[in-house]
Amino acid sequence: MKILFACGGTAGHINPALATANYIRSRYPDTQVLFIGSPKGMEARLVPEAGYDFAPVELKGIQRRLSWHNFCYNLSSMELLCTCWGKIRRILQQFQPDVVVGTGGYVSGPVLRKAAQMGFRTVTHESNAYPGVTTRLIAKTADKVLLAVPEAAAHLECRQEPIVTGSPVREEILFADRAAAREKLGVGDRVCILSFGGSLGAERINRAIAEVVAHFAPTGRTHHIHATGAYGTELFPECLRELGADITGDPHLDIREYLRDMADCLAAADLVICRSGAMTLTELEAAGRASILIPSPNVAENHQYHNAMVLAEHGAAVVIEEKDLTGERLCQTIEELIADPARLEELGKRAASLARLDANERISREILELIPQGDTQGR
C-alpha cells in the first residue's frame, strides 16, 4: 500500500498529515509513505524528523496585500508554479501511489490537481471552518473531501458530498493526566492560565499578557504559563519593565519561548488564551479547556475568526478580536471567568462536546476505502 501526502507552508497543514500517516502506519506497518513539500518550508525539516521520505518541489504561496514587493514575489511564485508540473508528474509516476492525500497549503493544490489528471485517487482534508483557496479548487475534482467542522461545507462545491471527520489529535493530548501535569508544573491549588501566540509570537498578545502578568502576579491567585514566541523573547521582558513588574524568582510565573510540553500544559490549565488556528482549537476541544480566543487578522480569508466563532456560537469560548484587544479588557475578562468557576467549567465542557476524538480513525478509514481491499491486507 502506497500513500502520498502533499502539504506544507504551516504546521497547521503539516501536522494533520503527519498524524494521519502515523495512525495508518501504526496499523499497517508495511505502508509506504511519501511526502511532497517545499524544500524551503518547515515540512522539509518536520517530515524527515518524523521518519518519512520527502520529495521536494519548490513552490511558494501568493501574497494578497498590494505592494511592489508582493507583486515581484507573486511573479516568482507563478514562475515556480509553471515549472513544477513536470517534476510532480515524475514523482507520481515513480511512486505510483494508491491514493494522494492533501491537507492544505500551496503545495497540495498542484499535486492533487496533477494526480487527478493522471487518474490517481485523491483526498483533501480541510481543518478550517472557512476553507482555503486550495481546498475550494481541489474539492471540485477530489474523490473525497474531508472536513474538520460541518460549517465548512457551505463554502465548497464538491464533486462528492463532503464528509465531516474532525481533525487529527496527537495521542499525548488525549491521554495527558491533569493531576500529574499540575504537580509536574508546580501549579498547586492556583488557577492555571496558559497563554501563547504561536511559534513566532504575536506582539499584540505579548503586550496584553504582560499587563495580565503585572495585574495578577501580586495577587497570588494564579499560576501563569506563557510562551512568548521567537519574536517576543526580548519584547516581553521589556514590556514587563515598562509596567514596573518584577517577576524575578516567582515560581508561579513560567515564561518561555516555546511550549515543548503542550500536552502537560493543556492538561494543567484552567483557562487558555491563544490564537484560533484549526489545530490549536482541535487540541483545546480534545482537552476540554475553557479559552479566550484572539483570532489573528493576518491570515487568508480571515479563517481564524471563522474558526473562533464556531466555538463562540456553541458557548465554548470567549472571543476578543485583535482590534478590540487591550490589556485592561483582557484582565477584566479573566477576572470575570476565574471569579465564576461554574462558567469556566461549562466553557470547557462545551468545548469538549465539539471534539471528535476518533478523527484519526475516521480520516484513515475514508482514505483506505479508496484503496482496493487486497492492497491494504496484502502488504
Description:
- The protein is an alpha/beta fold.
- It has 2 domains: 2-168 and 357-377, Glycogen Phosphorylase B (Rossmann fold, 3-Layer(aba) Sandwich), CATH 3.40.50; 172-354, Rossmann fold, CATH 3.40.50.
- It has helices spanning 11-27, 43-49, 68-95, 108-117, 133-138, 171-174, 178-185, 203-216, 235-242, 262-268, 278-287, 303-313, 327-338, 341-354, 359-368, 373-377; strands at residues 2-6, 32-37, 53-56, 99-102, 122-126, 144-147, 163-164, 191-196, 222-227, 253-256, 271-274, 290-293, 318-319.
- The strands form 2 sheets. Strands 3-2-1-4-5-6-7 form a 7-stranded parallel beta sheet, with helices on both faces. It has a 6-stranded parallel beta sheet with strand order 10-9-8-11-12-13, sandwiched between helices.
- Helix 1 links the parallel strand 1 and strand 2.
- The mean pLDDT is 89.
CATH class of the largest domain: Alpha Beta
CATH H-level homologous superfamily name of the largest domain: Glycogen Phosphorylase B
**Order of strands across the main sheet:** 3-2-1-4-5-6-7
Q: Which structural class do the helices and strands define?
A: alpha/beta
Overall tally of domains: 2
Number of H- or I-type helical stretches: 16
Rg from alpha-carbon coordinates: 22 Å
**Whole-number mean pLDDT:** 89
Q: How widely separated are the two ends?
A: 6 Å
Report the major sheet: 7 strands, parallel
Beta-strand level of the residues, as a percent range? 5-15%
So what's the overall shape?
elongated
From the 3D coordinates, which CATH architecture of the largest domain would you assign? Answer: 3-Layer(aba) Sandwich
The number of distinct β-strands equals: 13
Listing every helix as H and every strand as E from the N terminus to the C terminus, the arrangement reads EHEHEHEHEHEEHHEHEHEHEHEHEHHHH
Instruction: Fill in the CATH topology of the largest domain.
Output: Rossmann fold
Helix share bin: 40-55%
Q: Are there runs of 5+ residues with pLDDT below 50, and where?
A: none
